[in-house]
Structure formats: structure tokens, C-alpha cells
Design brief:
By secondary structure, the protein is mostly helical. About 70% of the residues lie in helices and about 0% in strands. The protein contains four helices and no strands. Helix 1 runs antiparallel to helix 2 and helix 1 packs parallel to helix 3.
Length: about 170
């Protein structure tokens, strides 16, 4: 029983870590594009693909713990635990595609900075990713608290969910 508990704890931590790594890479690429520093599609894809694949794999492995985190609209008939969980993968995927398009465009603009409206849109979508990640993280932290029987001390604990929601 202890090994299963430890494995679940490790998977929960990894879900938070891998979605954060993917998000952080996207944020860095936005900054790089905004500053008109050179970035090629090949370099972007080489860096983002492992981040995306790790996040997807980690969320797939959450099924060992009875957690279904929707990654696309496919399988929507299964029980999704929250819109935030579903949204985080969809938003990360959308932002990845959006940035990929801008990286390709930047290669043809010869290092011209992105237009202000494009930067604003990219940052707005990044904020949506952060909100969705926050919702997922709150639910994962609630689950960790239950598994580990931890009392949270601090100014803003994760919102409490009814038992059995995640």
C-alpha cells in the first residue's frame, strides 16, 4: 500500500512539473520573439516536443490513480474532473501552435519584432494557460493533502473540493 501511495504522490508532482515545464518553455519563446532574437522552427520544435510529450504521458499515467485528465475533446463522454483540467492541455496545445506559427513567420521577417497586438494576444493566452494550470494544481494539491494527511498552513490554501471529485 505504501508503494502505491508513493507512486501516486510522485505522479501528482510530475503532473504539476511537466505542465509547468511546457508552460515555461512557451513563455520563454514568447519573450524571445518579442525581443526579436533569432529562433528557428526546428529549435522550437526540438525543445517543445519533449515538454508536450512528457505532460501528455504524465497525465495518461494519472489513470493509475483513477484520475482522467482530458487532453482533447476526444473522449469527452468520459468523466472529466473539471473544466480546468481539460482546458490546461487544450490551452497549452493552442498556445504551442500559435507560437509555432509566429516562429515560422519570424524566420521570414528577418528578426523583426512581433507586432504589439500579437504579443498581447500571446500573453493573454499564456495567462489563460496559467489560470487553467492553477485550477488543475489546486485540485492536485487537494488530492495530495488527502493522500498525505497534510494540514496546509499559509495565507491562501487550495480551495477545498468535495470528497471524490479528484
Amino acid at each position: 500500500m505504501q508503494t502505491r501511495r508513493e507512486a501516486e504522490i510522485a505522479r501528482i508532482i510530475l503532473m504539476r512539473h511537466t505542465t509547468r515545464a511546457w508552460r515555461d518553455h512557451l513563455a520563454q519563446t514568447i519573450t524571445t520573439l518579442e525581443l526579436a532574437w533569432p529562433v528557428t522552427h526546428e529549435v522550437f520544435d526540438e525543445a517543445v516536443s519533449p515538454c508536450r510529450d512528457a505532460a501528455r504521458s504524465t497525465l495518461d499515467h494519472a489513470l493509475h490513480d483513477g484520475i482522467w485528465v482530458s487532453q482533447t475533446n476526444y473522449g469527452a463522454s468520459f468523466r472529466d474532473f473539471s473544466n480546468g483540467e481539460s482546458a490546461v492541455m487544450q490551452k497549452l496545445g493552442y498556445l504551442t501552435q500559435f507560437i509555432s506559427s509566429e516562429v515560422i513567420r519570424s524566420e521570414y521577417r528577418e528578426r523583426a519584432p512581433l507586432e504589439a497586438s500579437c504579443v498581447e494576444t500571446l500573453k493573454r493566452v499564456l495567462n489563460e494557460v496559467d489560470t487553467a494550470r492553477g485550477e488543475l494544481s489546486a485540485e492536485l494539491l487537494n488530492r495530495l493533502e488527502r493522500i498525505m494527511n497534510v494540514a496546509v498552513i499559509g495565507e491562501s490554501p487550495a480551495p477545498r473540493l468535495p470528497p471524490g471529485t479528484l
